[in-house]
Amino acid sequence: MQEPTFLILTALAARPLHGYGIIQAVDGLSDGEVRMRPGTLYGALDRLTDQNLIEVEREEAVEGRLRRYYRLTDGGAEVLSTEVERLRRRAATAEAQLRDRGRVVPGLA
Fold it and tell me: For residue range 62-88, what is the model confidence (pLDDT) as tens digits?
């Protein structure tokens, strides 16, 4: 899974968000390392909707513009959970390799 996809799904794990809210959440979750542009985001949202990982929860008009709120589906939550476990295993492997190399890793005993 690509990092932007992971971050979008993570942003929607706690609550539904509209597009700009997702952009802000992704920025915060990545400590500013991943900046989503609207065109990229909405393409990703369409793809994730087509894959049934997210869905439109509601739409509302704000200042004459339609604001669409997206939420994580149960299937999306399962996919995200699987990815979290995969990343944990990869991180544990990397930590073990660093220990075997004799490098001190902060936070590891």
Answer: 888 889 999 999 999 999 999 999 999
Q: Could you tell me the domains of the chain?
A: 3-97 (1.10.10.10)
Tell how far CA 77 is from the center of its chain. Answer: 11
- pLDDT tens by residue, 45-57: 999 999 999 999 9
* Cβ-based burial of 50 (10 A; exposed 0-12, middle 13-18, buried ≥19): exposed
Identify whether the C-beta of residue 105 lies closer than 8 Å to the C-beta of residue 99: yes
| CA pair distance 27, 62, nearest whole angstrom | 23
Element (H, E) at 93: helix 74-101
DSSP-derived letter for residue 64 is T
What's 61's DSSP letter? E
pTM of the model: 0.86
Structure tokens that stand for 43 in this block:
């393409």
